[in-house]
Amino acid sequence: MAEHLASIFGTEKDRVNCPFYFKIGACRHGDRCSRLHNRPTISPTLLLSNMYQRPDMITPGVDAQGQPIDPRKIQEHFEDFYEDIYEELGKFGEIESLNVCDNLADHMIGNVYVQFREEDQAAAALQALQGRFYSGRPIIADFSPVTDFREATCRQYEENNCNRGGYCNFMHVKMIGKDLRRKLFGRYRGYRRSRSRSRSLSPRNRKEHDRRERDYRDRDYRGNGRSKERQDRDGGRRRHGSPRRSRSPVTVREGSEERRARIEQWNREREEKQ
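Below the sequence we write its predicted structure tokens.
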């Protein structure tokens, strides 16, 4: 029974827990939902509800005075906001993912999801955001259960064929330009982890894990752990372009015809001895 309940947790078959809150950290029914919203007490992800206020909030592509807005101006406005949030929250730790919803439904419009590398970084950011304002509006921040955005985003939107439009119940993530992404996230290039990286390491094990990685990088930098004499002896040869070879002499590998001829010779020699 327990295994069955665990297997359906957070799915449509789960009649107790809300699958939408579990997947995207928001539900259109809010507190009136008939299923439970299990709010996490700690998480690497923060949800800043309805924080981004797009300039065409009332009617897409049109400002509050009814005048059309250049799409480039809308993207410019969004990227200024994105960079502002990234720089401010990046003070608390490495940001693995920063997603802003382009949905229009009340429970998702302007939602900002910030995923830190570590849970304690998210906790520090959450504490610092309490009582803060942005553009004259209070920041509503909380931990989010979302840790895998592949399950939270709308695949049809990514393929430009979502028939629900802005009122889809899955995340329509607003994209930033390549230059801004390179500027913000490129600083961690070489140190980033994949989304599937385990978060179960304790602080003690994490410290040991990081120490081993540093040692490995140092060995690689010094010449893969070889002795200085070996490096000096091999260095000149490699600098002149000859490829790295095995320490022991390497014999030329025989072709299939040569191997067959050698085997036939061995067989003849064995028959002669008999």
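The beta strands are 45-48, 95-100, 112-116, 133-134, 137-138, 141-143.
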